[in-house]
Amino acid sequence: MEKKAIPSIDLMRVICAIAIVITHTLPYSSFNLYVNGDLGYLCTFAVPFFFCTSAYFFTKKLESDNKYFFKSIKRLIFIYFVWCGIFFVPDVLIFGWDIKVFFHYVLIGHGQLWYIKALAICVTTFWLAKLIKKEKIFVILSLSVFVFILGL
To answer: How far apart are CA 30 and CA 125, in angstroms?
Structure first.
């Protein structure tokens, strides 16, 4: 599959990257609290945009390459555990070793890692839905409800 740039999506990626930086830096700025809050709320479209575009490009790639799912999941799991380790080491150095904290990091992860976990769950759900034939819509809906409950 040949990679083609989509200028409108590329432009939105730039805008969303700026919006994410604004969202994460506003709480520490000296702006008025009301300006901070309003501007922060205006920038909340960025993460859902990245999430949706990731899903869009994944589905496009999966349509032409069935092995792409396994490559994607391996990459997401690797990134997840690397960042779990990066967040875990300082906690061990500061608070000491605790097996509960270790399992918390492995199973639940650090707060900032929600995006990677959610993306892995969505990628897996889409792949499973693709394996299930369209006639079995009940199974797909049940799987979607299960993933939703899992996310709660």
So the answer is: 43
